[in-house]
Design a protein that fits this description.
Number of strands: 6
Distance between the termini: 69 Å
Mean pLDDT: 87
Largest sheet: 6 strands, mixed
Structural class: alpha+beta
Helix content: 55-70%
Radius of gyration: 21 Å
Order of helices and strands: HHHHEEEHHEHEHHHEHHH
Shape: elongated
Length: 238
């Protein structure tokens, strides 16, 4: 193995979520001498599998660090966001236990979904206004244990592509070796819960067809008597 092999492996690991980090690692690699690289390879194991595992660990440590420190920009009372490369990550940092005890699980999740759709509306509005905050974004992404079966069904109906990882898979080193997204799920949430992800191109969210789907989804929730505070004010004004 040599410099060119390490670069080849790095390029094979690149995707929208980690592109910025990999470019940073490539830049650091270029600053190393061949002797430095040989020393590192001898320490980690001079094989494709060992180098890939080592690089994956570097990449996902950085991804987790960014999730923890740079992904708390509020969009509304429930949803925050952060950016990694050209991917915008949506997060739900709110504790839902009190709401579930008061209103039940179903109504709580319906309210969460209204906040999610509101957050997406705000992202779409940013793009329409050419906001520099999301000028490079081309995909919206979520990953969380809260994305359970009913929530995934809701997202699939809106055109999201979803992926799920079981506790067993997140505990299996061999499975993790072959799934970079599962590695991220494990590093963010551990292996005590099932974890799912959902993603959708920003171009889809901007389309007239998707906007129609979104309004239909909101209407279904409103018919259950569930509104955001802003929605209630709008109704009173009509």
């Amino acid at each position: 193995m040599d410099r060119s092999d390490v670069k080849r492996i790095l390029y094979s690991l690149k995707d929208n979520a980690n592109e910025e980090i990999i470019n940073s690692v490539l830049a650091k690699l270029d600053r190393l001498t061949d002797e430095n690289i040989s020393q590192i390879l001898s320490q980690i194991g001079d094989s494709e599998t060992a180098v890939k595992a080592y690089l994956n660990n570097i990449i996902y440590k950085q991804l987790v660090k960014r999730h923890e420190h740079d992904h708390n920009i509020p969009l509304n009372d429930y949803i925050t966001y952060g950016k990694t490369g050209s991917t915008l990550h949506l997060h739900l940092p709110v504790d839902l236990h009190a709401s579930i005890q008061k209103d039940g699980f179903s109504r709580t999740i319906d309210r969460v979904n209204l906040y999610l759709l509101d957050a997406i509306d705000r992202v779409v509005d940013f793009r329409k206004k050419n906001s520099p905050a999301i000028s490079e974004i081309d995909e919206v992404y979520m990953i969380s244990p809260i994305l359970i079966r009913t929530e995934l069904k809701f997202l699939k109906e809106l055109g999201f592509t979803t992926q799920s990882f079981s506790k067993k898979q997140l505990s299996d080193p061999e499975f993790l070796q072959n799934s970079s997204e599962a590695v991220l799920a494990n590093k963010l949430f551990g292996s005590k819960n099932n974890v799912s992800s959902a993603k959708i191109p920003l171009a889809t969210l901007l389309s007239t067809e998707w906007q129609k789907k979104k309004e239909e989804a909101k209407d279904k929730i409103h018919k259950k008597g569930i509104y955001l505070p802003e929605d209630s004010k709008s109704l009173e004004e009509k």
